[in-house]
Amino acid sequence: MATQTEQQVRKLTYVQAFNEVLAQEMERDENVIVIGEDVAGGGGKEGFEEAWGGPFKLTQGLYKKFGPTRILDTPIAENGFIGAAVGAAATGLRPVADLMFVGFIGVCGDQIFNNAAKMHYMFGGKVKLPLTIITATGAGVGSAAQHSESLYSMFAHMPGLKCVVPSNPYNAKGLMAAAIRDDDPVIVFNHKLLMGGIGGGQHVPKDPYIVPIGKANVSREGTDVTLVGIGYTTYQCLQAADELEQQGYSVEVIDLLSVSPMDDEAILNSVKKTRKIVIVDEDYPRCSVASDISALVAEQAFDILDAPPKRVMAPHTSVPYSPVLEDLFIPSKERIVEAALEVME
Amino acid sequence: MATATTSSAITKDKLLWMYETMVLIRKFEEQARREQDSGRLRGTHSAIGQEAVPTGICAHLKDTDFVLGNHRSHHHCIAKGVDVNEMMAELLGKVTGTNRGKGGTMHIADITKGMLGANGVVGSNIPVATGVGLSAKTRKTDQVSVVFFGDGAAQQGSLHESINLAAIWKLPVIYVCENNRYAESTPFEYSVAGGSIANRAAGYGVPGVTVDGQNVLDMYEVGGEAVRRARAGEGPTLIEAQTYRYFGHYGADNPLGYRSKEEQDHYMSKDCIRQMRKHLTESKFATGAELDAIDKDCHTRIEAATKFGVDSPFPDLDELTTDVYIKYP
Fold first, then answer.
1. Residue B301 DSSP code
2. What is the distance between the alpha carbons of residues B183 and B186, in angstroms, rounded to a whole number?
């Protein structure tokens, strides 16, 4: 019984949980490989093996455990190695490719959008592509325009891709396990602030488990207003919910988790209960996931809404560098509270 | 340039297979043009003139090896053994096609034959083929991955990234550039710095071979060495096959808008099928009558393929939204 108690109190950070699931999946299936820039680091150079363990330490320790045939450092060639991961996935491997920052889609979009997304459909369902791409997203650490984007709406736009955005260590582990085991290409978007430890550690079961792709989670139940968060903005929604509760409101928080396929039902069910919705999204506002949710609610729940759906988003600008501007760019707890009060007026 | 090969070391079966494959490709492509003229088919990129390139390479491959192509890929598919009935049905958008009518001329794939797909984006399959090689090596098979692309694609960054990866990881990948002298309408002389694609291989420390792509025996020899290297774990090879497409870039393109009649006549006078026919009869490997019989058989097979395609049904309309994701039981 002591072990059970021990397990219950076992707390992991986001990075630790992610690292654990990678190790467990690689252990479980020898066809799982990790490929990307500095996923080991040092390129196997003697005395400097595993110099980095991944740009965000997600792959730390894996090179020593699984060796250079399973943890592959690549040259800086995103189009080349993401494309190689596509070919490997089509022929028997289950690659996890690390696209270091999501903005680098600019140099490998062809492989993801033209090949990974389309192969199953355009080959008449006869080729499967068990590929997982992990990528870092989000502002908040002063990396400016090209290293701070969210962009999952671009990927969600493409039929054939599945897109998941974990919001804490528990669902990061479960969604990553689901992604690796899925036979479709899945993109896993890891927010830099979550990887940096915001939100703190959390109980994460040691035994492998799945958080299903395509299902949202009700992080907090309430009756007055629905807040929808995506990844890091779920954390912010929960903060805002605390404050609103202190003011006497009952707030429901939906953690979207999958932006494609999206759990329309979970959103509509919540709105049927609360009749008000605020969608919080750090991505650019035009053609965004938040716009899509807003349209969903307007089209399918118009009659029960007490107020128009409201979006709290980044502005339609690139991500600025100066901390005062960057703070303004990211949807804040204050803006979420304000928006919620507005729809509840 | 690799020198002319004697066929003495090649079995008669293999020689006749190469002749037959080239004829079958030619007749398939001629029929595709007729279908286009009749309006049943909405345009393809004809490979007529380039038949020898994949034929000489694929003569060394097994069903378990992989070929990846480009937008002009019917010859790759046939050389790799894809069924011409299913190919013609695919061109006509029928459910009996290789891709159930969902891919069409630029995406023909048949993984059971190791044809991992034509690809409509120039240079796009080069990284994918590199990953197929990585997969073969990681899974410790002796499979080889061959990617065919044009002189146009050789100017894409994907080739540089891929050969570099294949070279550092010693992958069993063969990069075959079909230099047909034109990227759409843009001539090789204009777009290729240094005047050679094969020479670039030296920069990666891998063999780069220029070969007469209108001579299937030369292609066979160069392909044999590249496949041997790949299977032996010695790494990739870059082959530049000098060839010529007899027609325009796509169906309605008139190539005389950007090249001369004299130039066309020069290359067409070295036609790969005619050369092979001459070689086989002069060196007594086959009689004219034997080769005529092969021609006739190919003609019959393409007639049958056309009938199969035309008679086949279109996909059910609910197929529009299937195959977006894997269907789980």
1. H
2. 5
ipTM of the complex: 0.94
What pLDDT, in 10s, does the model give residues B240-291? 999 999 999 998 899 999 999 999 999 999 999 999 999 999 999 999 999 9
Which pTM was predicted?
Answer: 0.95
A81–B161: do the CB atoms touch at under 8 Å? yes
d(CA B277, CA B7): 13
Q: What is the DSSP letter of B62?
A: -
Partner-chain contact A111 B124, CB within 8 Å:
yes
Other Cβ atoms less than 10 A from the Cβ of A111: the count is 31
Residue among B98, B125, B324 minimizing CB distance to A121: B324
CA dist list (Å): B45 to A8, B41, B49: 63, 12, 12
Q: Check whether the bond before A95 is cis (ω within 30° of 0).
A: no
CATH 3.40.50.970 fits A2-203, yes or no: yes
Of all helices (H) and strands (E), which one includes residue A217?
A: strand A217-220
A114 interfacial to chain B (CB closer than 8 Å): yes
Q: Residue-wise over A205-235: b if at least 16 C-beta within 10 A, else e?
A: eeeeeebebebbbebbebebbbbbbbbbbbb
Q: Was domain A217-344 assigned CATH 3.40.50.720?
A: no
b/e per residue B275-296 (b: at least 16 CB within 10 A): bbbebbeeeebbeeeebeebbe
Q: What is the pLDDT of residues B54-75, one digit of tens each?
A: 999 999 999 999 999 999 999 9
Q: Which residue of A has its CA nearest to B108?
A: A123
Mean pLDDT in runs of 10 for chain A (345 residues)?
Answer: 60 98 98 98 92 96 97 98 98 98 98 98 96 98 96 97 98 98 98 96 97 98 98 98 98 98 98 98 98 98 97 97 97 98 96
* Same fold yes or no, A2-203 and A217-344: yes
Domains, chain B, in order of start with CATH, read 12-306 (3.40.50.970)
Q: How far apart are the first and last CA of chain B?
A: 54
Residues of A acting as catalytic residues: 147
Residues 6+ apart with CB under 8 A from B260: none
Q: Where are the domains of chain A?
A: 2-203, 217-344
Angle at B184 between CA B178 and CA B187, to 5 degrees: 75
